[in-house]
Amino acid sequence: MKVPLSWLKTLVDPGASTADIAHRLTMAGLEVEKIEEIGTDWENVFVGYVHAVSPHPDADRLVLADVEAGPHRLTVVTGAPNIAAGQNVALAIAGANLIDGHSDSGQRRVLKPAKMRGILSEGMVCSEKELGLSDEHEGIMVLEADAPLGAPLAEHLGDTVLELEITPNLVHCFSVEGIAREIAALYSLQAATLPAATLQELGPRIDEIVTVDAPELCTRYMGVVLEGLTVKPSPSWMTRRLTAAGVRPINNIVVITNYVMLETGQPLHAFAMDKLNGQRIVVRQADDGETLETLDNQIRKLTGEMLVIADADSPVGVAGVMGGASSEVSDATTSIILEGANFDMKSVRHTARDLKLRTEASARFERGVDPNLVEHAIERATRLLIDMCPGAKVRGHADHYPARLEPRQVSMAYSRFEQVLGIEIDREDILAILGRLGFDAEFGGVDHSTLTVTIPTFRSDVSLNDDIVEEVARIIGYDALPATLPIGQTAPVQRDSMYALQSRLRRVAQGAGLSEAVTYVTVAESEIARFGSKDRGGVGLIASVPENEVLRLRNPLQADRGLLRVTIVPSLLEPLASNLKHSSSVGLFEFGKLFLPAGQDQLPDELDALAIVMAGQREPYSIYSGNDVYDFFDLRGVVDVILEHAGLEQASLSPLRHPALHSGRAAEIRRADALLGVLGELDPDVAKAFGLDGVRVNVAELDLRSMMDCARQEKREASVPRYLPVRQDFAVIVAEETPAGDVAAALRSGGGPLVTSVDLFDIYRGDQVGERRKSLAYRITFTAPDRTLTDNDLIKVRKRIEKVLMQEVGGILRT
After folding, report:
1. E-assigned strand segments in 234-289
2. pLDDT tens digit string along 691-702?
3. 8 A C-beta contact, residue 528 and residue 479
4. From CA 681, how far away is CA 668, in angstroms rounded?
5. What is the distance of C-alpha 666 from the center of its chain?
6. Is 76 within 8 Å of 53 (Cβ atoms)?
7. Is the pLDDT of residue 528 over 90?
């Protein structure tokens, strides 16, 4: 919002510099974004007086003007049609830097004496455009009769314009009156009141001229019928204020409505009475498909949700946004209905947005204008219309205001000011500040410790006790409040254990040569179906969800990806295939959520998971490397390192049958009864379906929540052993179908607490162990916390291990 400082000073003059006013306003929450100086470039331009005007001897459209400005008396050749003797004008002499009135680009030129049709023109009488005041250049600018002759024009018309950012909660400051009230409060002054008509001067009540059919969207509608008006140019002082504020002046009636809107913050509109069918106003919602030509000469298509101002037959304006061309005030208008209303802020906002039409009026209504402001603005505009049109008279007025908005009261403890601001403020200062802002306040109760504040209706942004504290603080000035260090104890940091686990495992995966990927959480139905598992009754890897229960989005961002994933692996196969076209080996991992249905009308259970995919050459091509590709054991090595860093060294593997994984090359990872994850080689047909024909693809998916729970149960203190460990190798003959993990578990069970690690290092099949049997070689590390182990200790342990092997897996030790 642009506010000329000269306009502000008609209401309150703090006697301070522009910079200080801007600073105080900004510190009070009204940011001054820009300060524009008008007249600083009017050097060599003065207030002049036209003594005489005579025709040019050699040009029909030019005249010679004898103009005096102090010590300067010049002959000016001009073609201005409105110049006449006895006028006060803006006289520019040689050296003045003026805007070219015939240029649309605002180009400037330095004035020099020049001959025009044989007669020397020593200066120029200026139009508003040449001075940069407006786009008007058809005639010269005629100054008021009391303009100081001979004075520099900058002293008479120069001004400073403050451009402020009005946030949505500051609608009470969206006017000259509002800013003046703030300045008065900041400088401990009293703002002047505007001269306005009284309610009695608005004539008798004639409510029948207005009908409000949508009271929920129109809180108040007030209309005044004025007759005997004369449409003519507006006073120059008023047009200059409007122009400086960024509003284009038209005629006196329209100018007054705009002027009062900027002055009070209440939008007004004038309807030409003779153009209203039935000479009445109807406030109603539009019919779907209705059209209206607005004042900008655009045909607007309306909907049933929009509020319109209509006459007896059709719409004549969009409520709170813009009037219609059919009821526009013209030069022939003598009677009007002056509208002042209060419209629902949400309705105006939606209408302005849908019509792509934002105006000064809608900008105010969208923020929520006080309905009690209507009467003040109507009375002010009526007074200006009567003063500027001496023959005008008021026929009567209508005022539909069924539910009057009343002021509210809040009570608060005086001690709250010190609690919030950190300083003690005198009670009298609090009352004085609130009073200047328009609040009624008083202290009462025991020791006058309770402050009761009556909040005016124009302050809809104030409702809480701390809002009252803020009002006092911003007038004092936030920069005036002392800086103090906070006291008290800070809450201990609670680190997210899942985030910590993911951060730790991310470093491990990257250290294993994998690259992190981020994919969509939505997948295509065809992709997720390939990971079905009929024997497990559903789809997915670590999670099993019935195929018909996989969550479907109602409005997916991508039409072909309508399902929330229950496994991450399919999402990684597409980037895996793409990267293998450019690289001999690719390893990817991703942390993500799995979305498992939790029941009807319930949010899904979001399971944290880690997925890994690996494919391609184990080593780069070279003279020293073979043609080996990643296989199940490469993937298992990565998974083992991840489990180790998650604190799960005791996890075991068991065979798994899954339709998406290669038979015999898939396993599930368990700790006791908890499923930690699944790993294996992708079935060749599934790999082919994802564009990986002939590629051995190894995939894994781990349940991070289950891993974290198991690690928390296993968590124990670690100590550095004082005695040297002893390592022994055990070769165990078992049936071919016996899992190696079960054998390792039996070795741990037999070895008891002395066993600190069990590592498989060899597998043998052949005649020496028998048909459908295999020999598994393990290296076991034994450590005792209190002694060095002897041969006798190891012999006893070996016997226990041999016994447990036979009992649990039917295994025997090779000698």
Report:
1. 268-272, 281-285
2. 899 899 999 999
3. no
4. 12
5. 49
6. no
7. no
Question: What is the DSSP secondary structure assignment for residue 327, as one 8-state letter?
Answer: G
Shortest CA distance to 572 belongs to which of 520, 618, 617? 520
Tokens 């609090």, residue located? 430
Neighbours of 449 (CB within 10 A): 13
Task: Quote the tokens at residue 34.
Answer: 């820009």
The DSSP bridge partners found for residue 396 are 225
327: phi > 0 → left, psi -120 to 50 → alpha, else beta; which? Answer: alpha
- pLDDT tens digit string along 686-726? 899 888 998 999 999 999 999 998 887 655 555 677 888 99
Q: State in Å, rounded, how far the first CA of the chain is from the last one.
A: 96
Total-model pTM: 0.64
Distance (Å, rounded) from C-alpha 274 to C-alpha 599?
66
CA distance 318 to 322: 5
Contacts of 79 (CB under 8 A, 6+ apart): 61, 62, 63
pLDDT tens digits, one per residue of 185-242: 999 998 888 888 887 889 999 999 999 999 999 999 999 999 999 999 888 889 888 9
Tell me how far apart the alpha carbons of residues 183 and 11 are, in angstroms, rounded to a whole number: 10
Contact 218, 343 (CB under 8 A): yes
Give the per-residue pLDDT at 210. 96
85-120 as b/e: b if 16+ CB within 10 A: eebbbbbbbeebebbebeeeeeeeeebeeeebeeee
> Given the DSSP bridges, would you call strands 114-116 and 108-110 parallel, antiparallel or unpaired?
unpaired
